Amino acid sequence: MTTTSRPFSARGDQWTFLTHHARALIAPTQDSDARLRDVAERIGSTEPTERAVQLIVAGLEAAGDLTRTRVGRRNRYTIDFTVALLRHPAEADRPAGDLLTTFTHREDTPAAESGRAAS
Questions:
Q1: Residue 66 burial by CB count (10 A; 0-12/13-18/19+): exposed, middle or buried?
Q2: Who's near 35: CB < 8 A, 6+ residues apart?
């Protein structure tokens, strides 16, 4: 059986791997000073709206997954990478850092590039 790989748009799929909640958690690890408006733009230009991101962040904060600290006129958002925040029983014991570093870690250094080429 031959499987043909088709571009994402050709399949007509409308789902994404990460949820808006996951993206709202990832954003502060990339920029802890990002405004919620910036997070909304990073997640998607029209969906979710800034208000939807506010609700997501408020829920994450209420659950203790995210901490908001006032710095001047802005908020700084931080995540404890050691806390187990995944809700499904199959992943419930995994720390947040396992997921977040997977999506935020970049090996952009010349040493990493040369090490990868030698492997």
A1: buried
A2: 74, 75
Measure the CA–CA gap between 69 and 107, rounded to whole angstroms: 29
Show the CA angle centred on residue 15, arms to residues 10 and 19, nearest 5°.
Answer: 150
Give the chain as a 3 state SS string.
CCCCCCCHHHHCCCCCCCCHHHHHHHHHHHCCCCCHHHHHHHHCCCCCCHHHHHHHHHHHHHCCCCEEEEECCEEEEECCCCCCCCCCCCCCCCCHHHHHHHHHCCCCCHHHHHHHHHC
Reported pTM:
0.63
Calculate the CA 59 to chain-centre distance.
Answer: 15
pLDDT truncated to tens, each residue of the chain (119 aa)? 555 555 555 555 677 778 888 888 888 888 888 888 888 888 875 566 888 888 888 988 898 888 899 999 999 988 888 887 777 788 778 888 888 888 877 665 454 444 444 44
